[in-house]
Design brief:
Elements (H helix, E strand, L loop, with lengths): L1 H25 L6 H8 L6 H17 L2 H12 L18 H26 L6 H81 L1
Helix pairs in contact: 1-3, 1-5
Length: 209
């Protein structure tokens, strides 16, 4: 009798794990006691029937997820990948309770990701007429893109020419004009000195006469 109770408890534990796995994969949550009892006694109370039901439930859960199917396929082809490495030692300082806490805190991310992926699948697609119209606009868009690129190149060339002209104007009219005024001032100073010397010479000659 005790063995039967232990077996029933193990089946209940397996069923709960399958339900948690289904929740993590698909986001479907079966948590009420009535639903669990109804699922437990759906095909009878014998151990054999309950094992068959658990296998069917696990197969249905696997069929709902392409990722699970891929993992099962890999486990069949390469079973050694899923075996623990006996030579590898756990060098982490986390206890088992802490590890389980970390895993449980991140468990909701799986259901959130599954919900978002389902939401993406539910997004409406554009009609065939709209897709055809967009495809017909593609050549025009490419031509407009080429024209825009040509305009950008022209603007870049005009900007370069404008900068060159400004630099030339500055060198000729600002720097060159300053040099010209400096040269003229130097010449006027020289002429002024010559005129003063000549006036002084004539003044001295007039005084001697």
């Amino acid at each position: 009798m005790a063995d039967l109770e232990d077996g029933a408890g193990s089946l209940e534990y397996l069923q709960q794990r399958i339900q948690k796995l289904e929740f993590l994969i698909t986001g479907n949550d079966i948590t009420t006691e009535e639903q669990i009892q109804e699922t437990s006694h759906k095909r009878g109370d014998t151990v054999h029937e309950r094992l068959i039901r658990l296998e069917d439930s696990l197969q249905v859960t696997a069929n709902k997820s392409k990722s699970v199917q891929d993992l099962l396929y890999i486990s069949q082809k390469h079973p050694g990948l899923f075996l623990p490495d006996a030579a590898q030692e756990d060098d982490t300082t986390y206890s088992r309770t802490e590890k389980l806490s970390i895993i449980n805190s991140s468990a909701t991310l799986f259901s959130t990701t599954a919900s978002r992926l389902e939401a993406i699948q539910d997004l409406p697609l554009s009609s065939a007429e709209t897709s055809v119209a967009l495809a017909a606009l593609q050549p025009r868009l490419q031509k407009l893109q080429q024209i825009q690129q040509k305009h950008a190149e022209d603007i870049s060339e005009l900007t370069y020419q404008t900068a060159s002209l400004l630099q030339r104007w500055y060198e000729l009219w600002i720097v060159g004009g300053g040099d010209c005024w400096s040269e003229w001032e130097e010449r006027l100073t020289t002429v002024e000195k010559i005129v003063r010397r000549e006036e002084g010479r004539r003044s001295r000659e007039a005084a001697t006469i």
